[in-house]
Specification:
With 220 residues, the chain is an alpha/beta fold. The chain has two domains: 10-19 and 94-219, Rossmann fold (3-Layer(aba) Sandwich); 22-86, DNA polymerase, domain 1. Helices cover 41% and strands 13% of the residues. The protein contains ten helices and eight strands. It has helices at 2-5, 23-35, 44-48, 55-65, 73-84, 97-106, 122-129, 152-161, 175-184, 213-219; strands at 10-13, 20-21, 92-93, 110-114, 137-139, 168-172, 187-191, 208-210. Specifically catalyzes the dephosphorylation of 2-phosphoglycolate. Is involved in the dissimilation of the intracellular 2-phosphoglycolate formed during the DNA repair of 3'-phosphoglycolate ends, a major class of DNA lesions induced by oxidative stress. It holds the Pfam family HAD_2. Its cofactor is Mg(2+).
Length: 220
Amino acid sequence: MKGILMKKSLIIFDLDGTLIDSVPDLTDGVDKMLAHFGKSPAGMKRVRNWVGNGSVTLVERALIWANLPLDGLHHAHELFLTEYATCQSKTVEYDGVTDGLKRLLAHGFTLALCTNKPSRFLPDILTNMGWTDVFACVVGGDTLPTKKPNPDPLLHICHTLGVNTSHAVMVGDSKNDILAGKNAGITTLALTYGYNYGEPIIQSHPDGVFDDFGDLVAFL
């Protein structure tokens, strides 16, 4: 595996559950949305298992849990987006991420970001984390017509940066990340500490699994 990675030049990262822990803020957004309908808070434990397929699916899962009609999904989603925009104070990077990203850049890797989070929230998050100059390409969940686990966002990044997929690595925490990478023909590396619907990420058969971001960086 290490020999294969010697040929890599591009590392594509997922965001939520991989670089940042955003569940506290996402939970606040979901719970405030539910409050509009007179419903009890869902809480972080539930929301953590709902994250990963984009904000619409997150809200859909919350509505189902709260026994609310799905014909109100669009309205509920707009409420969530409005509330979540005011909930940005609790999101933090995982241990060692900023240092690890700097080390990868210093070693000559090109870094990109591919997330299912709506694009409107990415500039503020990247600014708050101090990562505005880190990623050569940033793709959000609504940048293209499709999102992970569809491979198109990863293929778009490779095409935009002029990098062959054989020279790219996808790093994520969920089966959506791993499946997208496999569908794109990209080497996949997984982190165990993120959000994966309560399932061990090893079940998605990534090419490598790490418990710590620093260990992943050292491996690369």
